[in-house]
C-alpha cells in the first residue's frame, strides 16, 4: 500500500508515489497555469497525479499540499497565488478521482513537518520553519506535532507587522520576501544613480537581484542585506515568543544563504534579551529542496492512517 | 494534605495554604524589601509562609512563583526587580525550610496557568496571558499545558521589538508598560505646554498617569492610548503566530480597561490579515486579581504530585 502526495502550488504542480515507509517510488510535475479555467487546472492536477500511480493501484491515502489559510478543511478558501479560487474543495475532488481518503494541509505547515522529520530540524522542539520566496509562510512543530492554533491559522510570519519611519505599518512579507527584494531594488535604481549590473538587466525581480548579489553587485547586496535585517527582526520576535531550538529557513530566498542570513543573525544577536535565546546553531537552511511539500504531504497523510 | 503557595515578587511576598482541591485556607503577605540583605529577605519569605501553615502540618508540596527567566530551575538567576540576586536557589531553600518538594515557575507562566484554569481563559486553546505592569511578561497554555519553549524562555511579549522612526529598535516593554506610560507622560510634560492635571502632581508615574486618564485628563489619555496602540501592535504579532482563542491581559495596567484596550483592539482589527484571527471575544481582562500567582503556584505544585 502506498501514499499519493500532491503539491498544488501557484506555479508548479507536483505529484509523487511513496511507499508506506515513505520511499519515493515515482514523481512527476507540471506547470500549474493558475490563470487557466479552474476545471482545466484541476484536470491537469489529476492527470499529473495519475502519471505517478502504478496501473491498477489505489493509494492508501492522499496527502495534498496547498497554499492559503485553513487548508486542513480540504478547501482552497483563497490564496494570493490562485486569484479567483474561492472555497474550491480540492481534497474531495482528489479523493473522488483516486478513490481514497484525502488530507490537505497548508504548504508551509507541511514544509515544517518534512524538515522536522527528515531535514534540518530533526528532533528539535520547538522547531520553526519559514519559507521565504514570493511570499513568506511558516509552520511550527511543537512536541513533535504540527501546531496550527485555534482555527488553523497559526504561524504566519509573513504577517508580522512593523512600523516604518513614516508611520505606515507593514508586514514582514513587504520587507523581506523575494517580491520585496525585487521592489526595493527597482526603487533604488529609480531613485539613485548608483551603478549596478541590474541597470542592464531585462527584468529586476527577486531572482535577478539575488543573482546580482551573489556576483557581488553592491546595490543588489545592499538590498539583500536590508531584507536580511528585516527578516532578522521578524525572527527576534519569533524567538522571544517560541524560544525555538531550531529555525529552518527555506524557499527560494534561502538559497542566498549567508548573504541574507548573516544580517538576520546579526540583528538577532543584537536584539535578544538573553543570549540563551540564540544558540549558535539556531538558524539553519532547509535541506529538502523542491520536494519538501511532497514529503510533508505524504507524512501528513500517513499520520492520519494510524 | 495541603499545598503551600509562595508568590515571591519584587514588591510583595505572598503566601497561601491551599487544600488539595485548591480551596484557599489561609493567606498572608508582606513587603519584600528587595533592597535589604538577601538573607533577611529570604528569612522574611519563610516567616510569611510559616504564618499560613497550620501548626504541626507539613505541606504535600510547595509551589513558588518567582520573577525572571528559567525559574523552573528553582534558581532566581537574575530578575530586573531583584538587583543583586544571582543564581539564588530559592526552591531548595523553601523545600528545606518546610520539608517538602518545592516547584518554582515564572510569575507570568503561573498567571497564564491560573487564568486558564479558573479565570478569563478557561478552556481556551491556545490561551495567551500578558501581564502589563512595571514590566511586561507573558505565558501560554497550549493544549491545556504550560508552553515554555526549548530552554523555558518562551512567551516574552515584553521583548517583542519594534523600530522607532529614528531607527532605534526598542522593546514593547519600553512602549507599553506602566513604566513606559510614566516616562512618556513626563516627556510630554517637559516638551510641551499642554495643560494637564499631572503638572500639579507630586510624581508622574504609570499609576498617576492612569488615574489622570481615568479622570479624563487629555494628555494622560493621549499617552495611555499611544501605549494601547503599541500593545495592540505587539498583540497583532502574537495573533499571527499563535492564532490564540483568547488573550488575557492582567497586571496593573489592565485596570485601565477599555482606555488602553480599545486602542489595542483597533490596531488588531486594522492589522490582522484575516478577520478569522480576531474573534470579538479575543481580548479579555484578567479575572483573578492579586492572588493570580498564588493560585498558579498551587496549580503547578499540584500538577507535579500526580
Distance between the ends of chain A:
14 Å
The multimeric state of the shown protein is homodimer
Query: What fold name goes in the CATH topology slot of the largest domain in chain A?
Result: Nucleotidyltransferase, domain 5
SSE ordering of chain A: EEEHEHEHEEEEEHHHHEHEH
Summarize this structure as a short list of keywords or feature phrases.
homodimer; about 300 residues; alpha/beta; Nucleotidyltransferase, domain 5; five-stranded mixed sheet; about 20% strand
Brief overview:
Two copies of one chain form a homodimer. Chain A is an alpha/beta fold and 306 residues long.
Structure notes:
The structure is a homodimer of 306-residue chains. With 306 residues, chain A is of the alpha/beta class. Chain A has two domains: 2-111 and 291-305, ATPase, nucleotide binding domain (Nucleotidyltransferase, domain 5); 121-287, ATPase, nucleotide binding domain (Nucleotidyltransferase, domain 5, 2-Layer Sandwich), CATH 3.30.420.40. Chain A contains nine helices and twelve strands. Chain A has helices spanning 38-50, 90-98, 107-118, 173-176, 178-191, 206-214, 218-242, 258-271, 292-305, and strands spanning 2-8, 12-19, 24-31, 61-66, 102-106, 127-132, 136-142, 145-147, 161-163, 169-171, 246-250, 283-285. In chain A, the strands form three sheets. In chain A, strands 3-2-1-4-5 form a five-stranded mixed sheet, sandwiched between helices. A five-stranded mixed sheet of chain A has the order 8-7-6-11-12, with helices on one face. In chain A, strands 9-10 form a two-stranded antiparallel sheet. In chain A, helix 8 links the parallel strand 11 (246-250) and strand 12. In chain A, helix 5 crosses helix 7 (218-242). The two termini of chain A are 14 Å apart. The model of chain A has no long low-confidence stretch (mean pLDDT 96). The A-B interface holds A 69-70, 124-126, 142, 147-157, 159-167, 169, 171, 233, 236-238, 240-245, 270-274, 276-277 and B 69-70, 124-126, 142, 147-157, 159-167, 169, 171, 233, 236-238, 240-245, 270-274, 276-277.
Amino acid at each position: 500500500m502506498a501514499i499519493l502526495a500532491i503539491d498544488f502550488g501557484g506555479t508548479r504542480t507536483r505529484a509523487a508515489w511513496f511507499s508506506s515507509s515513505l520511499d519515493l517510488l515515482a514523481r512527476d510535475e507540471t506547470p500549474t497555469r493558475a490563470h487557466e479555467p479552474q476545471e482545466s487546472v484541476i484536470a491537469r492536477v489529476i492527470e499529473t497525479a495519475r502519471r505517478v500511480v502504478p496501473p491498477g493501484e489505489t493509494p492508501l491515502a492522499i496527502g495534498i499540499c496547498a497554499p492559503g489559510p485553513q487548508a486542513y478543511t480540504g478547501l482552497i478558501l483563497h490564496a494570493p497565488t490562485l486569484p479567483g479560487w474561492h472555497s474550491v474543495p480540492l481534497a474531495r475532488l482528489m479523493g473522488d478521482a483516486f478513490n481514497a481518503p484525502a488530507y490537505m494541509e497548508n504548504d508551509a505547515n507541511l514544509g515544517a513537518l518534512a524538515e522536522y522529520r527528515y531535514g534540518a530540524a530533526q528532533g528539535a522542539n520547538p522547531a520553526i520553519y519559514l519559507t521565504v520566496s514570493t511570499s513568506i509562510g511558516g509552520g511550527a512543530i511543537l512536541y513533535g506535532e504540527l501546531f496550527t492554533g485555534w482555527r488553523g491559522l497559526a504561524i504566519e510570519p509573513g504577517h508580522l507587522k512593523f512600523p516604518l519611519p513614516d508611520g505606515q505599518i507593514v508586514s514582514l512579507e513587504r520587507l523581506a520576501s523575494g517580491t520585496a527584494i525585487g521592489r526595493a531594488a527597482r526603487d533604488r535604481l529609480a531613485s539613485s544613480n548608483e551603478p549596478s549590473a541590474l541597470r542592464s538587466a531585462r527584468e529586476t525581480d527577486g531572482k535577478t537581484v539575488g543573482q546580482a548579489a551573489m556576483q557581488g553587485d553592491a546595490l543588489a547586496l545592499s538590498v539583500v542585506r536590508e531584507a536580511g535585517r528585516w527578516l532578522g527582526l521578524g525572527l527576534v520576535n519569533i524567538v522571544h515568543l517560541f524560544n525555538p531550538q531550531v529555525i529552518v529557513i527555506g524557499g527560494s530566498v534561502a538559497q542566498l544563504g549567508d548573504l541574507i542570513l548573516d544580517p538576520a543573525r546579526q540583528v538577532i544577536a543584537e536584539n535578544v534579551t538573553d543570549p540563551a535565546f540564540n544558540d549558535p546553531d539556531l538558524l539553519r537552511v532547509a535541506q529538502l529542496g523542491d520536494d519538501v511539500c511532497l514529503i510533508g504531504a505524504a507524512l501528513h497523510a500517513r499520520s492520519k492512517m494510524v
